[in-house]
Amino acid sequence: xxxxxxxxxxxxxxxLIWFSPEEMGIIMGRDLRITxxxxxxxxxxxxxxxxxxxxxxxxRHIYGENQYDIVTNMKQxxxxxxxxxxxxxxxRNLIEKMLNNTPDTRITSEEVVNQLExxxxxxxxxxxxxxxxxxxxxxxxxxxxxSLM
Length: 149
Known about the structure:
CATH architecture of the domain at 6-107: Orthogonal Bundle
CATH superfamily of the domain at 6-107: Transferase(Phosphotransferase) domain 1
Radius of gyration: 19 Å
Distance between the termini: 43 Å
Helix content: 40-55%
Strand content: 5-15%
Shape: elongated
Low-confidence stretches: 31-35
Order of helices and strands: EHEHHHHH
CATH class of the domain at 6-107: Mainly Alpha
Strand order of the largest sheet: 1-2
Number of strands: 2
């Protein structure tokens, strides 16, 4: 990594549908035998967002079901399957920030870590509440369960 936050990738590594839009643009606009491509930390953040989405969608790509749809939707900034991640899911907002098409306004890796730590704290608090439910009177359980949901 140099002082500008970029690095050189030798050759094309990986699968097209897992590249950031800026990397995809470079690859699709040039000969695939190119020997040097500039990557950045922001490109990695985008790829991590794709992986997070893939995990939450149980093996489906966040931008579509096949390579053509995925590439088209990525170019149009249309994460077609994101609606299947509930709006209130703790990671939904983070993934949306990670998948920002513009590298300059995309969340940084440090901000990703900070948000993951905040999510972990929220989950720990909800877990404590869940444990408390096992000892609460039946009449109070319904309200507690609804607040956890």
